[in-house]
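@channel sequence for tomorrow's demo:
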Amino acid sequence: MKIMIVDNNRLFREGIASLLANQGDMEVVGESDVSEEAVQRIIDISPDIILMDTGLYREVGISIMKHTLLRRPDMQFIILTTQETDEQFYDVISNGAK
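structure tokens (generated this afternoon):
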């Protein structure tokens, strides 16, 4: 399974990548910060799953999901976040996150 990590914290991305490197059936194929440029990186890399933090950048994260899914509806987004409100949870789920 090819995975891309999208998060603004480089140390967090590297930590998650390190954990996933020990899994025989997973390969981290790319990383990006939470920015509009992430959409093109995701399309170029074509991972099976995108692990993305929306946290403080929820609107940008939702925009990344929407624009990516318009171009590649087969992409799967899994959201990693410390946000705890129901509104934030439903917001990302209703926009394509798993």
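heads up for whoever presents: DSSP finds four helices and four strands in the chain.
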